[in-house]
Amino acid sequence: MGRKFLGYAISLYRNYHKVRSKGGTNVEILTNKNINKPEFVGEPRNIRWSEEQEKVLDHVRRGHSVFITGGAGTGKTFLLEHIIKMLKESYGESRVFATAPTHIAAFRLGGQTLHSFSGMGFSNDNYHDDLKKVLHDEEAWRRWRMAAVLVIDEINMVDWYFFSRLQWIAKEIRQSDEAWGGIQVIVSGDFLLLPPIPKEVLGFRFYDFAFEVRWDENFDIQIELTKNFRQSEERFIKLLENIRRGKMDSEDLHLLEQKQTASASASAELDPSMVYLYPRVRDAVDMNWEIVDSLPEEKVEYGCRKRGKGHYHIKEKRGNPKYLWKKKPSRLGLSDDLLVLCKGARVMLVETLDVSNQLVNGATGIVTGFMKNDGRCHIDELNPDKLLPIVKFDSSGVEAVIQPITKCMMHQKKVKTLSSKRQLPLTLAWGRLIHKCQGMSFDRVHVGLTSRVCEYGMVYAAISRVTTLDGLHLSGFQPSKVKAHPEALDFYERFRQHQLERDTVVVADKTKQMNLLSVSTSDWEKAIVEYRQKVSK
Ligand SMILES: Nc1ncnc2c1ncn2[C@@H]1O[C@H](COP(=O)(O)OP(=O)(O)OP(=O)(O)O)[C@@H](O)[C@H]1O
């Protein structure tokens, strides 16, 4: 029995590594000749930087660590893209690291998630366990040693505990008492957008923002961008500014109520060209089912194959979507157990398959057709007709055949919980979570706020995605759902009070002080030995 289990564990482990290491095994690129650079990575042409953006660029050029903040659409990320390009030209590709807490935000910067950069993973370890982890991962250690610049976008979603561990690791690995061990940090975000995932202690929910402890020590300068580039209508910009601060005047309220009435009286028909944003996964899933059902195209169903303790070959029959949803979602699943696709379906990747072709977690596209599997992968258990979907991705223009992948979870201490799930790495994407849309712009959006769930900054994050008032559709809106976190409001209050002082501070040029560290394997081995000696004392 033990042997059988061990054999199974090894085969799952190998499979896992195959899937993780060879992105190309589960996706076949059909057309990528016309890869357009994603709209947001595009080469800046005819750009006129705002005065504040110019100021940021000036400080960055002088080697200063900068915090860039400002409302949605003020060009924070756009500016970061330019900064990253500029710094890579000065320091070289391998010394500038672009990161963000989510895959899609990191992808926009052509970087990696902050967790993956750090080498600390997702555990909530203490500082010393984190350091041990980084020291045992030569690549992660090299990144920390090599870094001349670390860029972090969407800092509002990073919690204080993680942020403080990063600061500490940087100092330890680089053996320096300077902030971030001498790395130039460029951090960006708006604390009045979505907060970090709240913690719960004794039934009490609290949010720990990255700014909470010794924030000012991280930066030479902090700058707020105020010119909105995403929206141009004055009325809309004023509404967004008010919602950002969690308040609305009678005019704002009237405008939103008008929008809501207009959306309710508009044709009840679902519009596949619209993006539907919700605070809860369940609403997004229901909307996806409704839209896919309403399309006249022939449907193709994909099940999943689960292996491991308690579930062998479970196959879901398509049923009432509400019923499906009542089932506990699998802990390790990529997405729902049943996926229904058809030509024209809007889909999103839930796994990074091929970074060079921009097929990353969160990339969206349209199903353009299906292809019979010619034996290149095992699809029979998931789809008896052996059809593989062909997806044309929005941002890259790549057309690819998507093949199923297997995700495994292995608890080394409790081998009994070993399990795996094989399915297509896709979900339908008309309905989306507001959390997953931060940083995006859309022309037509329906913001559905009918559920009771409503996080701080959520209405603001959702409404600020749309470029014009005309493109905004609304349901379930209530004024009480417009909330800004009081601590974030306090932060900006203090921020503005200190702005004048900051403007007068002259910070010395730091470019010549750049301390580039050595990164040889022998240095790494020496660091581990030194750490062991330190711990054993
Ligand atoms: N100087 C500029 N000139 C022209 N367009 C700009 C400029 N700065 C930003 N933009 C445009 O403004 C839009 C919003 O920019 P961006 O997404 O960077 O804003 P953001 O502050 O990061 O928003 P969010 O907080 O919602 O992510 C983008 O379409 C971008 O191309």
Automatic annotation (TrEMBL):
Gene3D superfamilies: P-loop containing nucleotide triphosphate hydrolases
GO molecular-function term, one example from the UniProt record: 5'-3' DNA helicase activity
Keywords: ATP-binding, DNA damage, DNA recombination, DNA repair, DNA-binding, Helicase, Hydrolase, Isomerase, Nucleotide-binding
Cofactor(s) required, per the database record: Mg(2+)
Top EC class for this record: isomerase
Reaction equations catalysed: ATP + H2O = ADP + phosphate + H(+)
UniProt EC number: 5.6.2.3
Keyword set includes Transport: no
InterPro entries: DNA_helicase_pif1-like_DEAD, P-loop_NTPase, Pif1-like_2B_dom, PIF1_helicase
Name by which UniProt lists this protein: ATP-dependent DNA helicase
Source organism of the structure: Corchorus olitorius
